[in-house]
Amino acid sequence: MDPAATQPPSRPADPASLPGLEAGTRVRIVEVGARDGLQIEREILPPASKIALIRGLADAGLRCIEATSFVSPRWVPQLADAEEVLRAVADLGERGVELPVLVPNERGLERALAAGARSIEVFTSATESFAMRNWNRDLAGVLAMAAPVAAAARADGLPVRGYLSMCWGDPWEGPTEPARVAGIAAELLAMGCDSVSLGDTIGVATAGGVHRLLGAVTDAGIGLEQVGLHFHDTYGQAVSNVQAGLLAGVRTFDSSAGGMGGCPYAESATGNLATEDLVWFLEGVGIDTGVDLPALARVSAEMAGQLGRPAPSAVARALAPHGSTVR
Amino acid sequence: MDPAATQPPSRPADPASLPGLEAGTRVRIVEVGARDGLQIEREILPPASKIALIRGLADAGLRCIEATSFVSPRWVPQLADAEEVLRAVADLGERGVELPVLVPNERGLERALAAGARSIEVFTSATESFAMRNWNRDLAGVLAMAAPVAAAARADGLPVRGYLSMCWGDPWEGPTEPARVAGIAAELLAMGCDSVSLGDTIGVATAGGVHRLLGAVTDAGIGLEQVGLHFHDTYGQAVSNVQAGLLAGVRTFDSSAGGMGGCPYAESATGNLATEDLVWFLEGVGIDTGVDLPALARVSAEMAGQLGRPAPSAVARALAPHGSTVR
């Protein structure tokens, strides 16, 4: 058999739109591998690795790359180099790449602004249990911590995004009430966020639940242009959930190169939706993402090599060079 | 942290239907692991392993289990024990489990009927290239081989299913023309098949392409109640493609326990859609499958152990016992 013929295609060969999807639909991908993906890694990577990762992602065509987090290094030692990393990629910002950074509190915002941050994220929870376990305070306390950050960044004219974790369920409380998620999302927007990212932190969402939550969000008066979706692939549903979100009208999706990252609270959970798998889906339904998939798969393979394990992305595996050690 | 709380849920906790999906929708799952999944394995499993697999699948609630293939043992040595396996699970047939078997030609049909087969499958291709490589004859020749099998089985009152491979693309010809697939599907129905299974053998379908092909099938006068879909997860799109098929009106989906199987013509391709991931999706959108997911995941883990590698199913991994060697 001709080996060349058995090489899998490197992008969907024959795109076809979905019923109900407008021609010319644009989607924004928020690449979260360098922050959300790396932060759970125990082995501390050198700043040069993170800088190379962010540059590689930008070179592969990604235009919104979460760069780092200005949390206390005591909480997340992996990202203690936030200033160094952000400064080293500042030129990408000048080339039109948005580089949001996560900021937990006012001290973090000072550090972020001093390091040149031009896009801010705050992080909250849809459940009391996760709030207590992640921040050791109740949800009101978490929101009170985020509010001055959002207000100050907004006053500085910076875009501010509010992350909401555990939007479909959490490991302690089970399913999350959609109206509750919508209410907290509305609070985030009221305190100064421009947009919210609804996170399925443990990967329990399925397509019907995506429609249901987005219905509750719309009922709360939130426009879907302010909403992003952040799925985990724990149960293999992430791409299907993106389809549901896209059909419901969402145009922003978070993903992580190679599927890096996971949920520290669900031991066997696999990671974030892989950017490669998301791009494959979007290109397949005729949405031009501007992402060079083989280039992105190389970036993921390089990082997987550094982390010592294969990237969980199906597309990254399919596109890996034959004989690669990270297949 | 309470370890019990971090155990992932074993089924979707909070089902929600999809817009446009009728209440009470039923779906038929055709479990293909014991035939389609195993046939590419080089190491020959003993009949007892296959019998235990089929029994385990039935005990987990699957009601249509592809049991074996009556191809020549020279072509597929793995399934040389077809008679023994089928006879050993015949009691399941009496308990309402359908046990289709693949039959390539009239000699195979004689063997299948002598062994007690009550449900027959014939296998064809949507492309000339795959026909030539898999059967060393052109597509007309492949259809001519299947036709007397379908007619004879139909005359005996047995259900006959026609498999069509490479329906969205093949490694040599690229994308497959939807009208061509629909035309061959119509030929299969005309020759005596009750239903057809449209296979994405190399996993290149995306959701829009599923709608497009089903549109062509409908345009050819084929009712979707006669159509099943058979996806591979090479690019992580299989569950999303099921969603598209379900929304378009298809009610039969093929899948393989643990995602066993693959395509021998695409070296880095991952396997069939995992039954666990399919069931998770269906239960998530409120469709009762009757499948006991933890029981199914145990069956897949047992087989993965015998095959010496982890099951590619996300759900199977998530549900694997902690410390399991096949995670």
Query: What overall form of chain A do the CA principal axes indicate?
Result: globular
Q: Return the structural class of chain A.
A: alpha/beta
Q: What is the average per-residue confidence, as pLDDT of chain A, rounded to a whole number?
A: 92
Oligomer class: homodimer
CATH class of chain A: Alpha Beta
Number of helical elements of chain A: 14
Strand order of the largest sheet of chain A: 1-10-9-8-5-4-3-2
What percent of the residues of chain A sit in helical stretches (DSSP H or I)? 40-55%
Number of domains of chain A: 1
Which pair of chains forms the biggest interface, and how many residues does each contribute?
A-B, 68 and 68 residues
Strand content of chain A: 5-15%
* CATH topology term of chain A: TIM Barrel
H/E topology pattern of chain A: HEHHEHHEHEHHEEEHEHEHEHHH
Low-pLDDT stretches of chain A are: 265-269, 323-327
Keywords (chains A, B): Lyase, Metal-binding
EC number (chains A, B): 4.1.3.4
Organism (chains A, B): Naumannella cuiyingiana
Pfam families (chains A, B): HMGL-like
